[in-house]
Automatic annotation (TrEMBL):
Component of the Mediator complex. Component of the Mediator complex, a coactivator involved in the regulated transcription of nearly all RNA polymerase II-dependent genes. Mediator functions as a bridge to convey information from gene-specific regulatory proteins to the basal RNA polymerase II transcription machinery. It is found in: Nucleus. Belongs to the Mediator complex subunit 7 family. It comes from Arabidopsis suecica (Swedish thale-cress). One of its GO terms (biological process) is regulation of transcription by RNA polymerase II. GO terms for molecular function: transcription coregulator activity. Signal peptide: none annotated. The lineage of its organism: Eukaryota, Viridiplantae, Streptophyta, Embryophyta, Tracheophyta. This is Mediator of RNA polymerase II transcription subunit 7. Residues 137-164 form a coiled coil. Pfam families: Med7.
Length: 168
């Protein structure tokens, strides 16, 4: 019994049979997805919105105003986390049955830290793109300078060769 190594192509390849003669004969691509969609059983959205801590059922441990001093709040939460970890060590030694409460508090602090860091992601992405574009500009300027240098060198070599030929 013979078997094929590759499966046959999907049937929609026939839609593109005249593409080499007429590129406009191919069907238009589907429009981009907007809103919510389901992928592998999970619901996703195309909107890039960071859900609040309250929506996630986590108490917010830093001020709720829009002018948050991220550096100050991250340091404060970090110190609080260190303190709670030390208290957890004491609780585990003295009262092991009460560790679950401390673990919940530590989890809440971690979630607040992550939420603060995730709210800085758009700024980080912009800064990264600016840095990448500045590097690209620098590389292109260096490439232009290299081309100019090589052009001048080639012109000098041609001029020297022309002078040498005229002198003979």
């Amino acid at each position: 019994m013979a078997t094929a190594t590759y499966p046959p192509p999907p049937p929609y390849y026939r839609l593109y049979k005249d593409y080499s003669e007429n590129p406009n004969s191919a069907p238009e691509p589907p429009p981009p997805i907007e809103g919510t969609y389901v992928c592998f059983g999970g619901n996703y959205t195309t909107e890039d919105v960071l859900p609040s801590l309250e929506e996630q059922g986590v108490p917010q441990l830093y001020p709720k105003d829009s002018n948050v001093d991220y550096k100050k709040e991250l340091r404060s939460l970090n110190r609080e986390l260190q303190l709670h970890i030390l208290e957890l060590a004491d609780v585990l030694v003295d009262r092991p049955s009460q560790y679950a409460k401390r673990i919940g508090e530590i989890s809440s602090i971690f979630k607040n830290l992550h939420h603060l860091l995730n709210s800085l992601r758009p700024h980080q992405a912009r800064a990264t793109l600016i840095h990448i574009m500045e590097l690209q500009i620098q590389q292109r300027k260096q490439a232009v300078e290299d081309i100019k240098r090589r052009r001048e060198e080639a012109q000098r070599l041609l001029k020297d060769a022309y002078v040498t030929l005229d002198g003979q």
